[in-house]
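Hi R.,

Here's the chain you asked about this morning:
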Amino acid sequence: MIRVMLCDDHAVVRRGIRDTLTEAVDIQVVGESGSYSEVRDALRSTPCDVLVLDLNLPGRGGLEVLSSIKDSDLQVKVLVVSMYPEDQYAIRCLRDGAQGYVNKAGDPSELVSAVRTVATGRKYVSTAVAQMLVDNLHAPTSAVLHSSLSERELQTLLMIASGKRLADIASELMLSPKTVSVYRARVLEKLKLSNNAELTVYAIRNDLV
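And the predicted structure, written out as tokens:
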């Protein structure tokens, strides 16, 4: 039996994932959490084989959960299940220690297959991600400047490029407007840009939005 822990800050989404997984006779959902602190405590108290992890968590995000697990002695495989398109986060997650990446908009059967695959210790990647991994090996540095951004910096870039105001971004990420302003400044510096308009153009040219 594959023991699975869920981590997503939306209870309705967790329920949908749980219902999908529990239909499989070889998978058991042993716990749920909705934040960095909750999943950290849950992993310490409840043994599991696979953590199904969302990236967009309040406060400290999913990539920080990945980093925490990577630096610990926890023997758990991580499958990232996110609303973000694969070309934005999949490669980063795999580099940071995830065993697989599945988009929430995908077929539910893919989620079950992915859990089974990573539980055996193998990587789960779609055909699209496999091609991106190959292309990324030969990509010029200038084409992947955004790979240097932290999780929150990349989220800030994507939200600004989608037309959201800093106040809206702060509310959605449960951060202070001042903190979001700091992330914006770091993004501008790392991408060598000057304003929100240039951020938007960069995001469009790099197929981020």
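The beta strands are 2-7, 27-33, 50-53, 77-82, 100-103.

Let me know if you need anything else.
M.
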